[in-house]
Amino acid sequence: MEISCASGEVKDLKDVDLVIRNAGELLTCDGPETGVAGPAVSKLDVIRDGALAISEGRIIEVGTSADIERNFRGRAVIDADGALVTPGFVDPHSHLLYSGSRHVEHEAKVTGRSSGPGLQSGINYTVRRTREASDDALVSQALRDLDVMLCHGTTTLEAKTGYGLDRDTEMRLLRLTHGLRHPVDVVTTYLGAHVLPSDYEGRRGEYLDLVLEMLPKAAQLAEYCDVCCDPVSFTYDECLRIGKAAQSYGMNIRVHADQTGDAKGASLAAALRAHSADHLDYTTDEGFAEMAKAGTVGIIFPAVTLHMCEMTPKPKHDGLVPAEKPFMPQMARRAVDSGCAIALSTDYNPGSCPTPSMQMVMQLAARLFRLSYAEIWNMCTINAAASLGRGKDRGSLRPGKRADVIIWKVPEHGMVINRFGVNLVDKVIALGKTVVTNGLVASQPAR
Prior knowledge:
Elements: E1 2-4, E2 10-12, E3 14-27, E4 46-55, E5 58-64, H1 65-71, E6 72-79, E7 84-87, E8 89-91, H2 103-111, H3 123-132, H4 135-151, E9 154-160, H5 167-178, E10 185-193, H6 204-213, H7 215-221, E11 224-229, H8 236-248, E12 252-257, H9 265-271, E13 276-279, H10 285-294, E14 297-300, H11 302-307, H12 328-337, E15 342-344, H13 358-369, H14 373-380, H15 382-387, E16 405-408, H16 413-418, E17 425-430, E18 433-437, E19 440-441
Parallel strand pairs: 3-6, 3-7, 8-9, 9-10, 10-11, 11-12, 12-13, 13-14, 14-15
Antiparallel strand pairs: 1-2, 3-4, 4-5, 7-16, 16-17, 17-18, 18-19
């Protein structure tokens, strides 16, 4: 096809697989592959009447509709009709494969009443249920959860083990996670050092040896090794030993850091040059400074704050959280102001955060952490991708990156955060293919 330019010059159009045009706002969320930090996190690049050209699963060009249509012809065309167009969400912290619900435990927590004798609760309850579950049950539930995540805009997900805590189940969870086939791109993480399993009570050294013994096989199935450096889990020195061993097998590091107290988890993440340090509730200013210097991305979880009833700085007598619990908006602001790149995530799991929706996370980040809309969008896209070492490949709408795109039912980016309790996604494009239409999975995902 040829078109005539204003100068009279005849110009050929380049054929591409897909053109998305007429976006009311096209939010690029662009930034360095290490994530945006400091004042930059409060800025967004918005293209009015924006458009994308896509081929072979990659973004070819980004610009105004006039620019794209002047240069490209799509074999398929999606007219956004004034809707918001954004990158797909990257959810960089989840515990995807597990069995059993913890709703009874949650009611006991929020009411302050016992639910009767024999209440089974906590991570070790989930461990027991997960060990008992069949492969088919674990995979079926995971695929259903991935469908829900996809319909709410998540196109990349990190998924940890940590509910096996023995050799057979941890390896089984790694194998099953690594083998998942779904439009959501799943990044696998080994979390043998989650908590001390109840069947190793009094044998802490033996369990740590087991975690180390599993590393060679874990490294064949998982890109990351996570360690939980926290007063209720493992110490700085224990986690440092595991982290260094994991690195010797070529694994990258993630850290559960300082969720229930300052265990120097942020300092550990910096020492290991971990890709992420997650939670950070009790992290000191010094810890944040070390992370910023090391290039470690911090990940924070407003949906955990909601579900665990941690919204107030000093609750009086309800017993829900310790009186010394940090004021979470202040923690979030210290994290952002520290110079670290900060990301948001669900922390999807059956205990502290059973929501799979990054939309909910965004909405709570504004309400509970007092973050701005621009900060929130950057934290769910480019910074989340950076925390997984994928900032070069996804997390923004930029030529050369994966064509992971959300087309919304609203025209402006602030409306996604302002409204809550409903799914505002219309379409999701994953690697250039339309996989969600009208908020529903468009066709059976590849499995």
